[in-house]
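haha ok so turns out i had the wrong file open the whole time. this is the CORRECT one, sorry everyone. sequence first:
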Amino acid sequence: MFKPMLGMAAEKMSRRFRLSSQELRRPKFAPVYTNQAIGQFGAGMAAPYVSFYAAKIGATSTQLGVLQAVTNLLPNLFQVPWGKLGDRMQRRVPLVLLGSCIASLMYLFMVGNDSAIAIIGLVSVQAFASSIAAPNWSALLGDLAPKESRGSIFGAVTFVAGLTNMLGTIATGVLFFLGEGQGTVELYRWPFIVAGASGIVAALALLWIREPAAQARAERAFFYSVSFTGILKWDREFRYFAAVQMFYNFSMSLIWPILYLTISHPSLLGATNVEIVILTFIGFAATLAFQTQVGRLMDRVGPVSLITLSRFMLISVPVVYALAQNILWIYALEILLGVTGAILNIAFLGFILDNAHEAQRGEYFAIYNALVGISAFAGSIVGGLLGDVFSKWWGLFYGLGAVYLLSTIGRTVGATLFLRVRSRRSYPETLGAVLRADLRRLLSRPHRRR
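then structure:
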């Protein structure tokens, strides 16, 4: 019988990073850690390389654009009915298991497939399957984690997932480096095989989860009667939060199509492949370094202040990219963004769990992800078009600079709007008080030594 031993090892790792919550050591989280450790390792080996594989087998630029659009949009677009179904069933594991297994099987079907159209079709099915699992996975974590230690638990789970995902990405990089004819089509079969097999094994680990008892039927009946538009109409705080996040995400995604161009174009930063790889791993490492600390901080101050802080911090991205003189500027930015990455991984999850009713968590996550996914998709399309148009008018440097300026203005307005976001749950401390206390403690250390 399969035993989720890797989950136990992950829990020991979490204690090493001073995750002191007793809840973190309960056996019910071992399957969660196992699922993330095994599944994310496989995903890290394959997911970043699917587009490269499509290009290797002859995909056109239009086909690659469709592939990117499918990856960004479909996982979010179809989440609402699946989130609502999970709420009705009061069972998350079967839907997460179903979606995860279908998505993993698509990797196995990619092995040896030399048709770009077929790859797009498989990725489309994979994206649809992800929409089954995503809202129910978030709701499942909320069901399992007690309110007082959500941040620590989410931080630990995300740390394990991020670490193993990075290791998987490195493993494929080493495979390509050691293989004859680095990055040839034949080498891609092994990452796809590992990703497919590990995804299925990781999904089976969820069978060891004992889901909390269902809510009373009378209580659930009212919430099931509320529709998609009804939630947005009835829940003003959530509606405002979703609307502001849609605006911010649109402004943020305007520059996504041009970031790589800025980094790699010879007339701009002109980064080499090695420098791009280093940049990727700096981002991974910085987020992992701050993940558990941010999780514990969220338990003290709540997600709203952290989300607002991250919105203001992300204003720096278009500014730095527009002004950067060399790749070292971007390296420094990635270290700073490690904090925002850690916040993004857990704070939005915590906010929705604090504000959604327990019987309706899946649908709340689905609605939020769908709206934000649509806005990011639209922003990426608009940003790419503006980059092309402005570059023809004013040249590449100033054309891209104009897009960065628009994103900076939009992010600044959006971050200011986040100051009005409120949560239904109160927390014992404020972010300002915690930072002041930490600063006083830091300044007092030399005096104590004397």
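The chain has a mean pLDDT of 81.
again sry for the mixup
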